[in-house]
Design a protein that fits this description.
The structure holds two protein chains of two kinds. Chain A is α+β, with helices and mostly antiparallel strands. Chain A is 36% helix and 26% strand. Chain A has one domain (2-81): 2-Layer Sandwich (Histidine-containing Protein, Chain: A). The longest helix of chain A has 12 residues, at 16-27. Classes of the chains: A alpha+beta, B alpha/beta. The A-B interface holds A 7, 9, 11-13, 15-17, 19-20, 23-24, 43, 45-49, 51-52, 54, 56-58, 82-84, 87 and B 74-75, 77-78, 81-82, 85-88, 114, 117-118, 121-123, 125-126, 129, 132-133, 280-282, 285, 302, 306-309, 311-312, 315, 318-319, 322. Chain B: One of its GO terms (molecular function) is metal ion binding.
Chain lengths: 87, 575
């Protein structure tokens, strides 16, 4: 299992587009992907779960990957958490 | 008798047509227990309903992509994802199997739980996502109960659609030949239907309240989405009035739209820059939409506000780079941190001041807290290769402040170059003129900057010694007062003598009374809210700079704001 913490910088937070890209990417990986904000932990292969975290610009979020190809997943998904999306 | 309902203007315009009431039946399903042996079949029935809904949404997605482009169609990709979401689909399937209940009721409960969760979110935009879940779920439910969703693609005469709410898929299916506009009982400016209406250029009002349900299909209505009014069953006189307004509005809109790709030029051929102010990356869409000549003021405070720690260099770098890239070579003036005064940062832990507007704010604070300042400057310098960056320092009173800020910037530039990080060598460095002392000493400053940008809100407040937040002295906010105009004139002349340019980034820059005078005085760049750019471009196209130079001289010799205002009005009338 690998974990790393990131700060969200996309100005309008994690809405439709970033969420879509993230979940879509997460589902391509066989490993378990979770996101943790504060005391809340969600299945990051669910866009509803991701939306329920209400990630805003400046929020710290921990990415946890567990299973096959976890290192690769951490790298790709971590980059998506700290990206500015065009809207 | 005409009845007027008011709501929030979500997308501008005027429509006059018969009302068409639209809605989806959403009966609360009954909870039915099923036998063990039936759960498999029930799950299959649910999967089939999901599959049918997927097919419909895919069709709507493709249709939206054809009509509005891939970006607007993305929302339906999100809808398709919801139909694969474990929190919605798997949880419903589990419920059917474990609780041995009918699919309708299982879906109903799961949907409500998800919608409740989203509606409790602090963020308005996230709360709006509840509408997506309801939309998708309602469509699946329609198939389960054998009443598939009605669609707005089949209107047969010109109509104004009236609904409790319109789902994103409803809006996307609107037949634009017959749907002239819509009004909904609920919703906000950020609802998907509102956003969609703006991109379809369809007049729309949201939030007119429960009375929407009392309007029968076929009643004539006037939808005035400029004022946020829905006039039900209007009189002949109102109809006549609004037909005129509608024609005038459409003519003006077409004219302004045509101006959006045009350069900003005065009637006598002087090229100007009409730029827009932004506070965040999100504001860029409006800047591009209105064809602004650049960004004349990027307030970077927003990066620092509403959070609990300073933004990192990397984070700022990405944001500045993004803005520069989006503006595609057009000028972007980025103002360094302007905090203090009425803008506080809790985590900065500044001591309480009795006169914050006259205290340690903006550049004064940055020179005191150099760690902060250097981080921002490094981010700016690194981003500089992505476009036409101009850096601007706020709240300078004396030369030593400017020199110190420039020295620190130079140090950071050299550090970056030594580290092998490329930095553009054509960054222009300027300062805001908002303190009268700086305006009076503009000649000396002009030699050491590339440009000035006049911040009128603060310049007026400091010149008049009147707090602009204090209602009791609001009468002293006098942008056309000769004292203010003379200060502005001094700054522009000083810049001209040194071969530099002058901009303005206060509210005054987009004010149609001020623009003729500012043009006459020789202002080069006007930065305003994005929505004012096209009207301003239209206005300057009607003004002769040479003529207004003479008028401005007359105005500057007057004794009061009232005289100046009257004078400008009189001159404009004969244009």
């Amino acid at each position: 299992m690998l974990t790393q913490t990131y700060t969200v910088i996309h100005p309008s937070g994690f809405h439709a587009r970033p969420t879509k890209v993230f979940v879509h990417t997460a589902t391509q990986y066989p490993c378990k992907v979770s996101l943790i904000k504060g005391t809340k932990k969600i299945n990051a292969k669910s866009s509803l779960g991701l939306l329920s975290l209400g990630l805003k610009q400046g929020d710290e979020v921990t990415l946890e990957v567990d299973g096959e190809r976890e290192a690769e997943a951490l790298q790709e998904l971590g980059a998506l958490l700290t990206k500015i999306y065009e809207e | 008798m005409a009845k007027i309902l008011t709501g929030i203007a979500a997308s501008p315009g005027i429509a006059i047509a018969k009302a068409f009431r639209f809605g989806h039946a959403a009966p609360t399903p009954e909870r039915k227990t099923i036998a063990d042996s039936e759960t498999e079949a029930e799950a299959a029935r649910f999967r089939e309903a999901v599959r049918l809904a997927q097919g419909e949404i895919e069709e709507i997605r493709a249709q939206t992509e054809r009509r509005l482009g891939a970006q607007k169609a993305e929302i339906f990709e999100a809808h398709l994802m919801l139909l694969e979401d474990p929190d919605l689909v798997d949880v419903t399937l589990d419920k059917i199997a474990e609780e041995k209940i009918n699919a309708e009721y299982a879906l109903y409960e799961v949907t409500n739980a998800v919608v409740d969760m989203l509606q409790e979110m602090e963020d308005e935009l996230l709360r709006e996502r509840a509408a997506d879940v309801k939309d998708v779920s309602g469509r699946v439910m329609g198939h389960l109960i054998g009443q598939p969703y009605a669609s707005l693609s089949g209107l047969s005469e010109e109509s104004v659609v009236i609904a409790e709410d319109l789902t994103p898929s409803d809006t996307a299916q609107l037949d634009l030949e017959y749907a002239l506009g819509f009004a909904t009982a609920v919703g906000s400016r950020t609802s998907h239907s509102a956003i969609m209406a703006r991109s379809l250029e369809l007049p729309a009002i949201v939030g007119i309240g429960a009375e929407a349900a009392s309007i029968p299909t076929g009643t004539v209505v006037i939808l005035d989405a400029a004022e946020g009014k829905l006039i039900v069953d209007p009189s002949e006189e109102e109809l006549r009035e609004y037909r005129g307004k509608k024609a005038a509005y459409e003519e003006r809109r077409a004219k302004l739209k045509q101006l959006s790709g045009q350069p900003s030029v005065s009637a006598d051929g002087v090229r100007l820059e009409l730029a827009a102010n932004i506070g965040s990356v999100e504001d860029l869409a409006k800047v591009l939409e209105n064809g602004a000549d650049g960004v004349g003021l990027f307030r970077t405070e927003f990066l620092y506000m509403g959070r609990s720690s300073f933004p990192s260099e990397e984070e700022q770098y990405r944001i500045y780079k993004h803005v520069l890239e989006k503006m595609n070579g057009k000028r972007v003036v980025i103002r360094t941190l302007d905090i203090g005064g009425d803008k506080e940062l809790p985590y900065l832990e500044l001591p309480k001041e009795s006169n914050p507007f006259l205290g340690l704010r903006a550049l004064r604070l940055c020179l005191d807290r150099q760690d902060l300042f250097r981080t921002q400057l490094r981010a700016l310098l690194r981003a500089s290769t992505a476009g036409k960056l101009n850096v601007m320092f706020p709240m300078i009173a004396v030369l030593s402040e400017l020199r110190e800020a420039k020295r620190i910037m130079e140090e950071e530039r050299e550090k970056l170059l030594r580290e092998g990080t490329p930095v553009s060598d054509s960054i222009e460095v300027g300062m805001m003129i908002e303190i009268p002392a700086a305006a009076l000493n503009a000649d000396s400053f002009a030699k050491e900057v590339d440009f000035f940008s006049i911040g009128t809100n603060d310049l007026i407040q400091y010149t008049m010694a009147a707090d602009r937040m204090n209602e009791a002295v609001a009468y002293l906010y006098q942008p056309y007062h000769p004292s203010i105009l003379r200060l502005i004139g001094m700054v522009i002349r000083a810049a001209n003598r040194a071969g530099k340019w002058t901009g303005m980034c206060g509210e005054m820059a987009g004010d149609p009374t001020a623009i003729p005078l500012l043009l006459g005085m020789g202002l080069n760049e006007f930065s305003m809210s994005a929505g004012s750019v096209l009207p301003a471009r239209e206005l300057v196209g009607q003004l002769s700079k040479r003529e207004w130079a003479a008028f401005a001289e007359e105005a500057l010799a007057m004794g009061s704001q009232e005289e100046v205002k009257q004078f400008v009005e009189d001159k404009r009338r004969f244009d």
